[in-house]
Design goal:
Helices cover 27% and strands 27% of the residues. The chain contains nine helices and 15 strands. It has helices spanning 46-52, 123-143, 162-173, 188-194, 202-206, 227-236, 259-264, 278-288, 309-317; strands at 5-14, 17-26, 35-43, 69-77, 87-91, 106-109, 114-116, 154-156, 178-182, 198-201, 218-223, 237-245, 267-270, 301-304, 324-328. Helix 2 packs across helix 8 (278-288).
Length: 331
């Protein structure tokens, strides 16, 4: 395999401070894995922002290149599954956590992390979806096993975020009535454009009655934030309702009782897309490229370059981003 110089967004730990810069690296220094990929697009996720600011719970050793998402073209492969020139997607697993990630123009990864790009998606569209869209897909796949459109309204928390906004769109396409929970009063038109039928203020939803169980209003929910929002979702689910949850931005604590579970028979389903099985991962990406593909996918993203990542990291940590932010890697 030939040696190739490339640019990457690198975070270094210097005397206890975490400093980022664009550096020129060499593929010889990447981990030796099955597949070398030239990255065309990556995307910004909350976990990337944590890695970029030195969160040791995400990335243990620095210097490091974040980026848990990448789409690109295979440069070299030792796997029979892939050949040079194949367009591929890599999301989750250890990419961008403790393995050099998609904020570099090249990545080297095991073949079992790689999915061929479905025909219905471009490399750019795959990153507009990225881990956020994939996670939304996993949540809806699990939720739809128990809750059907005719059962009633579906809540989506953190609805202007990456996971939430894609979830709103997919649920709308599948015929569900969607109620979005959002703390951003200026983004109601955005949520309606994504397919929300109703919008509830996050502050209002947090201030519901403290009783252990409330009036049953919703058939199910896609939760992305956890904390008191998830607590109140559980209290308001209808009998045999279900909620999938993937996030803890609000809080890692869940203060609830067993009453919604034993009196209404509801289900709480945890979702982790990071190490989702490869066979199921392929099926979710196929759905996201076809029936589940948001109609306005090309309207819910902003595009930046590596030089703009620092500012985007600050914004996502402050909750100022909506929709998806993708990084074009060849500029």
């Amino acid at each position: 395999m030939k040696s190739i110089e490339y640019k990457a967004y690198v975070v270094e730990e210097i005397e206890g401070n975490f400093i980022s810069s664009i550096k020129t690296l060499n593929t010889e220094n990447l981990s030796k894995n099955d597949v070398l990929i030239k990255v065309h697009y990556s995307s910004l996720n909350y976990k990337d922002a944590l890695s970029a600011t030195g969160n040791k719970g995400v990335t243990k050793a620095y210097p490091h290149t974040p980026g848990i998402d990448a789409s690109g073209i295979v440069e070299f492969s030792e796997s029979e599954e892939f050949k040079a020139g194949d367009k591929v997607i890599v999301t989750g697993n250890d990419l961008g956590m403790n393995t050099a990630g998609g904020f570099g123009q090249y990545i080297s990864v095991p073949a079992e992390w790689v999915v061929k790009l479905p025909e219905g998606l471009s490399m750019k569209e795959a990153m507009i979806l990225g881990t956020a869209g994939f996670t939304a897909g996993v949540q809806i796949s699990r939720l739809s096993e128990l809750v059907k459109p005719e059962n009633g309204k579906i809540l989506v928390s953190g609805a202007t975020g990456g996971v939430g906004s894609v979830a709103v769109s997919i649920l709308n396409k599948l015929g569900y009535q969607v109620t979005a929970i959002s703390g951003k009063s200026t983004e109601h038109e955005f949520l309606k454009s994504m397919g929300a039928n109703e919008i509830i203020s996050r502050s209002d939803f947090e201030l519901q009655d403290k009783r252990p169980i409330l009036s049953a209003k919703y058939a199910g929910a896609v939760d992305t934030v956890g904390g008191i929002i998830l607590e109140n979702i559980l209290k308001t689910l209808q009998p045999l309702g279900a909620v999938t949850t993937c996030g803890s931005v609000s809080s890692t604590q869940l203060n609830t009782t067993v009453f919604p579970f034993i009196l209404r028979g509801i289900s709480l389903i945890g979702v982790s897309s990071q190490n989702y099985p490869l066979n199921l991962r392929k099926k979710i990406w196929e759905k996201l490229s076809a029936d589940w593909k948001p109609e306005n996918l090309l309207e819910i993203y902003s595009e930046i370059t590596l030089n703009q990542v620092d500012e985007a990291v600050k914004n996502i940590l402050q909750g100022k981003l909506k929709g998806r932010t993708i990084i074009k890697m060849n500029e």
